[in-house]
Amino acid sequence: MYIVETLSNLIHQTAFFNLDPRCYAMILVALVFLYLAIAKGFEPLLLVPIAFGMLLVNIYPDIMAPYGEDGAGGGLLYYFYKLDEWAILPSLIFMGVGAMTDFGPLIANPKSFLLGAAAQFGIFAAYFGAIFLGFNDKAAAAISIIGGADGPTSIFLAGKLGQTTLMGPIAVAAYSYMALVPIIQPPIMKLFTTEKERKIKMGQLRPVSKLEKILFPIVVTIVVSLILPTTAPLVGMLMLGNLFRESGVVRQLTDTASNALMYIVVIILGTSVGATTSAEAFLNWDTIKIVVLGLIAFAFGTAAGVLFGKLMCVLTKGKVNPLIGSAGVSAVPMAARVSQKVGAESDPTNFLLMHAMGPNVAGVIGTAVAAGTFMAVFGVF
Question: How far apart are CA 274 and CA 255, in angstroms?
Answer without folding.
Answer: 27
